[in-house]
From TrEMBL:
It comes from Streptomyces gilvifuscus. It comes from the Bacteria. Transmembrane segments: none annotated. Keywords: Signal, Transport. This is Extracellular solute-binding protein. PROSITE patterns: TAT. Belongs to the bacterial solute-binding protein 1 family. It is found in: Cell envelope. Its main location: other. PANTHER family: ARABINOSE-BINDING PROTEIN-RELATED (PTHR43649), SN-GLYCEROL-3-PHOSPHATE-BINDING PERIPLASMIC PROTEIN UGPB (PTHR43649:SF31).
Length: 567
């Protein structure tokens, strides 16, 4: 499937680079969920505690929440899920969420990561969006693959654009400290009832705004996400139905099913690398970001890798590899040269833990040429056959920041931009942000927006980066998949817990930021049989002596002084 064959999807948990790329390649609208691999926190030792403001202090800063009544979702959010829209679109009946232009015609420069070849600055999409908003936005698109390098150089200079978009996965080293020092406090414009001047921003959930507090100030314009775990064990339901396979409900059942499926002689294996599903089914504390790896367990501040469940999950995954149930391509790890999608579609392996956005994406790719193909998502199980214990991802992961030196008129023009880009699905503003101009950038075919070649060229990861509406899943071409994905989030949300530092921006002292740099590689080496569980135990022991125990004390003090944002 080419990008213009998909409809919009935004939302899911803890946006990451990998899921952002997946969703923009498959769904041309905003962002869906995040693989919990790439986000990080960093800081200087300077003592700034970043976004640890919570409780009463946060309530003084946060914008008032006023739910939007412009459009009603077909499936309301529940248990932290995205909201879902299943109906077809009719351009003539699209709602208006911004009745008058709030922009005053000023110029605003925005630096943002971009994947692919950015369009020209005077392209039809940028021109039309600027006209709708009433602001002359000038884009300074930068290569998303090397954005961290550009970001560091720009923030170290005196020439910072009016707006800089910073994804969570780029918040390493000195970036969080730079955010606190270089960008504006938006509280005077948005805190409390002030946000009501920008109704679409007022409709952004408070959890996402809480995540936008840096150094005790409201500084980021957020891209909200569902906090429900976003890694879904996708499976070939069409093959399961044909063969009579049953969806497993425990770790042992999965292992038995994997044995039944696997037949190397006929070029079929059970699954891909199931490490992240194992972490979920064994109830391992979230690893999405450094701060989420810590929580109180039985009165002790505990890191995820100190728990028995962590080692048990690695051992179970190792057994899958050792038994030969994992497709050989996945044994290559990150050096894997080919995209597994084609082999999943060909039935070479039947279970693939993946970002929730690919649930729709894999189906949409195959819908035209393979009508019998059906991919679905397994509910996560507890490893022992009981209910799972899942851990929440963060409720926002990409932020836009305004230059501290910006004038009030520039800041208000930026907020006018954000008030349009945060418009909900089913509005004229959402269609402009995500699809551009009808007839130029997209056409509607049976209520489904389909991008033209010009739309594919121009309407990509630009305005969607400034701010977004509450997490949304909308696939009018495959409404059953919207229902399936939102339903999955709602069911899994019922088993989801929030760790001690959920929803907070934590800036770790620099002396601790490299302690776990090699952990993920060691995990992958263990599950592939290159290293042993005892190697991880040694790593944990070394980690404690090199600073892990001191970092534990630091987090405990942080919790004692600031409390938790989780409720």
């Amino acid at each position: 499937m080419t990008p213009n064959a998909a409809s919009g999807s935004s939302g899911s948990s803890g946006t990451s680079r990998r899921s952002f790329l997946a969703s923009t390649a498959v769904a041309t609208a905003a962002v869906a969920g995040g693989m919990p691999l790439l986000a990080a926190c960093g800081s200087s030792d300077g003592g700034s505690r970043g976004g640890t403001t919570s409780g009463r202090n946060a309530k003084k800063i946060l914008p008032a929440y006023v739910a939007s009544n412009v459009v009603s979702p077909d499936i309301p959010s529940k248990n932290g899920s995205s909201m879902g829209f299943t109906g077809k679109l009719d351009v003539d009946t699209l709602k208006t969420s911004v009745p008058k232009k709030l922009g005053k015609g000023g110029k605003v420069t925005i630096m943002s990561p971009f994947w692919g070849s950015p369009p020209k600055g005077n392209c039809a999409y940028y021109t039309a969006a600027n006209s709708m908003i009433g602001v002359d936005v000038q884009w300074q698109n930068q290569d998303g693959n090397t954005y961290d390098q550009k970001l560091g150089a720009v923030l170290a200079s005196s020439d910072i654009p009016d707006v800089v978009v910073i994804p969570g996965w780029n918040m390493t080293a000195k970036i969080p400290s730079a955010i606190i020092g270089k960008f504006a406090d938006l509280g005077p414009y948005l805190s409390g009832d002030k946000v009501k001047e920008y109704p679409n921003l007022a409709a952004i959930p408070s959890d996402a705004w809480q995540r936008s507090i840096f150094g005790g100030k409201l500084m980021g314009l957020p891209m909200p996400a569902s906090y429900v775990q976003n890694i879904v064990p996708l499976y070939r339901q069409d093959v399961f139905d044909k063969k009579g396979y049953q969806v497993p409900r425990s770790a042992d059942e999965f292992m038995a099913l994997a044995k039944e499926i696997t037949s190397p002689r006929t070029k079929r294996w059970a699954c891909g690398d199931m490490k992240w599903t194992a972490f979920n089914t064994f109830g391992v504390i979230s690893g999405g970001e450094k701060a989420l790896s810590w929580t109180m367990v039985d009165g002790r501040m505990t890191h995820r890798m100190e728990t028995p469940e962590y080692l048990e999950a690695l051992e179970w995954t190792r057994k899958l590899f050792a038994a030969g149930y994992v497709h050989p391509d996945f044994k290559l790890g990150k050096s894997q040269a080919t995209d597994p999608s084609a082999k999943f579609a060909a039935g070479e392996f039947l279970i693939w833990n993946n970002d929730i956005s690919n649930w729709y994406g894999q189906q949409a790719i195959q819908a035209a040429q393979n009508p019998g193909f059906k991919v679905w998502g397994m509910d996560l199980w507890g490893h022992d056959g009981g209910n799972p214990v899942l851990w929440a991802a963060n409720p926002a992961g990409i932020f836009a920041f305004v230059n501290k030196k910006a004038s009030e008129s520039v800041i208000r023009d930026v907020l006018a931009v954000a008030n349009v880009t945060a418009a909900p699905y089913g509005t004229k503003e959402w269609m402009m942000t995500n699809y551009g101009v009808e007839g130029t950038h997209y056409t509607l075919k049976n209520g489904v927006p389909v991008k033209t070649d010009k739309g594919n060229l121009e309407v990509a990861n630009a305005f969607v980066m400034v701010a977004s509406p509450a997490s949304t899943i909308a696939h009018p071409d495959l409404p059953d998949y919207t229902k399936g994905m939102v339903g999955w989030q709602q069911r899994m949300g019922a088993f989801t817990k929030k760790s001690s530092f959920w929803g907070l921006q934590i800036v770790e002292p620099n002396r601790y930021t490299n302690l776990t740099n090699d952990m993920e590689q060691l995990e992958d080496d263990i599950v592939r049989g290159h290293k042993k569980i005892s190697d991880m135990q040694q790593f944990i022991s070394d980690w404690k002596s090199k600073g892990g125990d001191k970092l534990r004390d630091w987090y405990k003090k942080l919790l004692d002084e600031n409390g938790s944002a989780a409720s």
